[in-house]
Design a protein that fits this description.
With 162 residues, this protein is α+β, with helices and mostly antiparallel strands. 17% of the residues lie in helices and 46% in strands.
């Protein structure tokens, strides 16, 4: 008898996927804040904002994977800091009809360079338009992932600055 896993779709909703069709995918994401701004990308498929980051390749240490992903998607070099958040997710990526069992790590990162690549230079299928967003004006309902975590983290920073 097949066992089905509930996977969250990139477009919202849930899709039942046979367990043996899941692909294991550890992934890393960067929370980069500089001068009261947060660095976010647009997700092409969902048209929502997302943290820079993505999949870890086999044998690739998390910090190296994160620096690679940030460079590909934004052009920035970063110093990887502490892990701020971990989440396990069963995720269905509709555009390619593939489902993932994902371990998702969010790291605090400090930018070492500041010039973002042009939109045409973003080296990613899903991510586009890297931009700095003013934290005070950020609409966290427009975040594709980690919305609650990012909202709480930004509130904590605001309280610490007072």
């Amino acid at each position: 008898m097949l066992e089905y896993i509930e996977c969250h779709s990139i477009f919202g909703g849930v899709k039942l996927i046979p367990r043996e069709k899941l692909v294991f995918r550890p992934s890393v994401y960067a929370l980069i804040i500089y001068q009261s701004k947060i660095l976010l990308l647009n997700s092409r498929s969902a048209n929502l904002l997302a943290l820079p980051g993505g999949g870890v390749e086999i044998g690739e240490p998390l910090a190296l994977a994160l620096r690679r992903e940030v460079r590909e998607e934004t052009g920035l070099e970063v110093q990887v800091g502490q892990c701020l958040h971990f989440a396990e997710e069963f995720f269905y990526y509709d555009p390619e009809d593939i489902a993932f069992h994902s371990f998702r790590f969010v790291f605090e990162c400090v930018p070492l360079t500041f010039e973002l690549v042009s939109d045409e230079e973003v080296d990613d299928v899903e991510a586009e338009k890297p931009r700095w967003y003013d934290i005070q004006q950020l609409n966290t309902t427009k975040l594709q992932s980690f919305g609650e975590f990012i909202t709480n983290y930004l509130k904590q920073i605001e309280l610490e600055e007072r």
